[in-house]
């Protein structure tokens, strides 16, 4: 792995061990798509990627292996330690191991793997690293907040390993679900199968992405004011409570879709016809709703994300969204501020769309190039 004068590297083989987050169409459109999208750029740098579904001979011939956390089974919420002997074997073969934590929250970590990997990347991390050294109820800052403020308790404690100082430098920010190639319309099974077959046989299928932009202009006529739909089926009390709290407020909003159970087709179609949506925390802070709304040209309202670092960053107060407090007391104030100020609402959506579009342009290319160089030089 020697760097050449032209800012490239001698041939480097990186294997990406994936699981269910890269099945079918999601292999091309989902979390790992940047390594396919920018494939030509990375090949010019001397970096070759292989996607693997098991630790086989191809893995042993790798210089670096990206380990998707989705691949590994857990025991009592922790990564099964039976895998650690395999990690040690790979390390003996001088293979660099990079863990990609794909869990939903900035607080739901897997630091138990830190002694066995060279680097640890996470989709979103707490701005204040000191949080990772503390006891946090439910493993999430917002769970801890609701536990303390509203006395919300979980049936079973959340188990996790706290960060230790000697491993802190291994912790890095990766990227969130905003890199997904979103579509403003729902694709059924047959449509997804047709797209998948096309992508498999078309070498440069991403070249059509920018020609057929999925983004809907925020300024189009919008018949609905507000959409708020979400599941209450989260088993952990302290995680579900934010959604429960909003529902209990029993806020009356005219011209809205409120707590209705609707199909994915109707949901995405409605997004293109509405002005505002509410996105509340689920198992984690970052949710598909913010990105789906942005693509559809709707502005999203959500709890304050100032404690989170993530990329792409749709969470810039006053620039891409207006945050609400975690106790939701200022929801109506923020809602009517956006509803009554079309200029502000359109400005927020336009900024959010530019941010999201940049992921698959030069900005995104540079981000992933810098990330790869950091990994290779480690």
Describe this structure in words.
The protein is α/β, with parallel strands linked by helices and 378 residues long. It has 2 domains: 12-179 and 360-377; 189-358, Glycogen Phosphorylase B (Rossmann fold, 3-Layer(aba) Sandwich). It has helices at residues 26-29, 34-37, 39-44, 57-60, 84-92, 141-150, 189-201, 237-249, 264-271, 288-296, 331-340, 342-357, 362-377, and strands at 12-17, 47-52, 64-68, 74-75, 78-79, 96-101, 119-122, 124-126, 171-173, 224-228, 256-258, 274-278, 299-303, 308-310, 322-324. It has a 6-stranded parallel sheet with strand order 2-1-3-6-7-9. The chain has a 5-stranded parallel sheet with strand order 11-10-12-13-15, sandwiched between helices. Strand 12 (274-278), helix 10 (288-296) and strand 13 (299-303) form a beta-alpha-beta unit. The longest helix has 16 residues, at 342-357. The chain starts with 11 loop residues before the first strand and ends with a helix.
């Amino acid at each position: 792995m020697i760097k050449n004068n032209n800012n490239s590297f001698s041939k480097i083989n990186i294997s990406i061990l994936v699981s269910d987050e890269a099945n079918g169409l999601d292999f091309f459109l989902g979390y790992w798509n940047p390594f396919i999208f920018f494939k030509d750029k990375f090949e010019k740098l001397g970096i070759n990627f292989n996607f693997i579904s098991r630790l086989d001979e191809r893995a042993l011939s790798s210089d670096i292996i990206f380990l998707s956390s989705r691949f590994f089974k857990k025991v009592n919420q922790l990564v099964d330690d039976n895998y650690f002997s395999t990690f040690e074997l790979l390390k003996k073969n001088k293979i660099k191991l990079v863990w990609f934590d794909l869990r939903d929250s900035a607080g739901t970590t897997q630091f138990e793997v830190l002694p066995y990997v060279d680097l640890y990347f996470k989709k979103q991390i707490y701005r204040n690293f000191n949080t990772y050294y503390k006891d946090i109820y439910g493993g999430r800052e917002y769970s801890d907040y609701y536990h303390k403020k509203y006395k919300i308790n979980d049936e079973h404690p959340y188990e996790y390993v706290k960060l230790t100082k000697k491993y802190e430098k291994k912790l890095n920010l990766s990227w969130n679900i905003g890199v997904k190639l979103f579509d403003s319309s729902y694709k059924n099974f047959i449509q997804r199968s047709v797209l998948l077959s096309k992508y498999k046989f078309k070498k440069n299928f991403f070249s059509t992405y920018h020609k057929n932009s999925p983004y809907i202009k925020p300024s189009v006529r919008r018949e609905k004011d507000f959409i708020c739909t979400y599941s209450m089926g989260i088993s952990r009390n302290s995680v579900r409570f934010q959604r429960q709290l909003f529902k209990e407020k029993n806020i009356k909003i005219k011209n809205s879709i409120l707590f209705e159970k609707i199909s994915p087709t109707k949901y995405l179609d409605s997004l293109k016809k509405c002005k505002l949506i509410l996105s509340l925390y689920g198992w984690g802070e970052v949710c598909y709703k913010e990105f789906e709304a942005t693509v559809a040209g709707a502005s999203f309202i959500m709890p304050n994300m100032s404690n989170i670092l993530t990329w792409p960053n749709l969470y810039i107060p006053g620039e891409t969204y207006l945050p609400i407090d975690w106790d939701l007391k200022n929801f109506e104030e923020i809602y009517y501020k956006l509803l009554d100020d079309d200029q502000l609402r359109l400005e927020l959506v336009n900024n959010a769309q530019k941010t999201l579009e940049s992921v698959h342009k030069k900005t995104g290319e540079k981000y992933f190039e810098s990330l790869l160089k950091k990994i290779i030089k480690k």
